[in-house]
Specification:
This protein is an alpha/beta fold and 311 residues long. It is 47% helix and 12% strand. Strand 2, helix 5 and strand 3 form a beta-alpha-beta unit.
Length: 311
Amino acid sequence: MSVPHALPDTSPASLRAFLLGLPGVDEVGAASRTAMLGTRSIKNETKAWAIDTAIGMVDLTTLEGMDTIGKVRALCSKALRPDPTDPTTPSVAAVCVYGDLAGIAREAVGDALHVAAVATAFPSGRASLDVKLMDTKEAVAAGADEIDMVIDRGAFLSGEYARVFDEIVAVKQACGPAHLKVILETGELRTLDNVRRASWLAMLAGADFIKTSTGKVTPAATLPVTLVMLEAVRDFEAATGQRIGVKAAGGIRTSKDAIKYLVLVKETVGEAWLTPDLFRFGASTLLNDLLLQRQRIATGHYSGPDYVTID
């Protein structure tokens, strides 16, 4: 994609014209490119590095209605020391919980990890702006230093781009010092053209990260969707000098899948994005497979079923 010559002002007409003027996405080409990158052969030494890198990029997540204080504390313990038998195992990047449990998570991890809280009427995003802003402020006050907000997909699909833009701006302000991850819920956006538009809309409104999914909708993260988002952050940096992060969330369960995403990152935006500051995995079960593969590389065999916890 060519970099836009001029970014829009914040007027609804200018914003709409800019987003609708973005070049279309070749969906067949995106699928072909990601399939080709997914066949890359990775040597064992590189695979070991990739697994440790992926562990350090995980937002270890629990977002269930039956979450308890005990479950969140156990999750935080695992996030801090993913493999208690091996102190060389890196910690994850963050724990991600509902806002009312952000204080419990912060107490458990101290300053060692980020605490991400979902907000803005997650996962639907269907609430008044006042409710969304209160949701955000309460999570930050409780200890969250990252907010994962959801956009109003109904408004976006209706072409109400300025409304979505204004909500993101307002939530960003309500975050204060906390970083803002904007969830596009790409499985509901229907086309890769919409994914590109939503990515640019979120970045123009002040997102620190753009995130694929809530994990509650199928499909969630896919390689073609993530490719389009990575291309958007690459082009946004070229246009503004500002680097925006990408979070792939939902459906990424194996080390093999995670490594495919890391290859995609390197080949699309370069090694500068291979850091938790600019790329994350939103996951609950992925960490277990990363730990099992890490142990196999170190010892030459897989551990028994009790080697990792059941989350």
